[in-house]
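your task:
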Amino acid sequence: MGRYDNVVAVILGGGAGSRLFPLTLERSKPAVPLGGTYRLIDVPVSNCINSEITQIFVLTQFNSASLNRHISRTYRFSTFSTGFVEVLAAEQTKENEDWFQGTADAVRQMLPHLRDWKVDTLLILSGDHLYRMDYRQFLARHFDSEADVTISVNPCGSSEAEGFGLLKTDDTGRIVEFKEKPQGDALEQMRVDTSRFGLSRDEAMTRPFLASMGIYVFNYKKLVELLETDVSWVDFGREIIPAAIEKYSVQAHMFKGYWEDIGTIRAFYEANIDLASPLPQFNFFDASAPIYTRSRYLPPSKLHGCDIDNSMVCEGCILNGVHVRNSIIGLRSRIDKDVTIEDSIIMGSDFFESMSEIRWNIENSKPHLGIGEDCTIKRSIVDKNVRIGSGVKLINREGFENYDSPDLPVYIRDGIIIVPKNAVIPDGTEI
């Protein structure tokens, strides 16, 4: 029997995703599109598959229909294997009539679904992180140190540290102190010499904190004990991890690669735009550990008279006379002539319009699916199935940091314009 045969992965789908609103208006956080072709959930699921962990549950409770559809169409294992990726939405039972109250409570409520599996180790992951990790190294650290709990940690600088749970270890790597999102003096007290974990002296100076990545390996029995100790404990960072440190052997696993929590609009935007750069921090072009997604069998994209640089163009697009810089053009995008797109994410569409539908739209002065002629779009996120008319300018002329349009389905968050899914923007609109 293999070392990882009794390992089950649980991917936490998060709450309502309010920090990613309006991208989470009609979908759960793990279902938000990423890099033009993928969805956020594809990252942890692919990491699991590449690590030979194929028993995977995804926990969610908000707008889970599109996530369910994506997973059921994408991840189908052989009939002769035990592999699966299954969405578990919050459900009411006689024992528990409440929604998930936090990360730990979500796992507590899904434990009945594990009774028939011979689980000895639970790998708990987040559904909104961008990184590539071989979990076998993480699990090897857990088993070799005979830990009850192992937490994956990432070195970080002062500007990022206060947004994470921070920890300290002894010389063996055992975690001796943990603080959830400390600030001020409490933050400074969590400063450590990260050169002990293999960072260079210069790196250790700029990244003097150990941040919890929200990725854990638990001995299954010990996790059950912790969850049953106090049912008011609903969060891993605030309650379960501090209790585990007091009671059990909790070890740190150092991860030095690229890792980004993309749970906010700014982080989501910056991570996506970086993907289009010549040397992105996260590389989708890694054949040794691919990121999987649904095969859509789309035709190649067609580009006529376009000027495109530092950008990604996905399959099934038709671009006519488009100027694009530092942007992502998603699946099935249809963009007309004299359109300028800069520093933007165009998520594309879920379907093609037929020529007769496009003609009908033109005859009735309605925008077709995609972007009409003579538009300028800068520093924007245009969600799926959006219809943008001709002469539209999305440029944040007033320089708003945060703004909700009273008349149009347009939002601004962190200075980034967002057009939500299925929105219609009339001809000549200026934001």
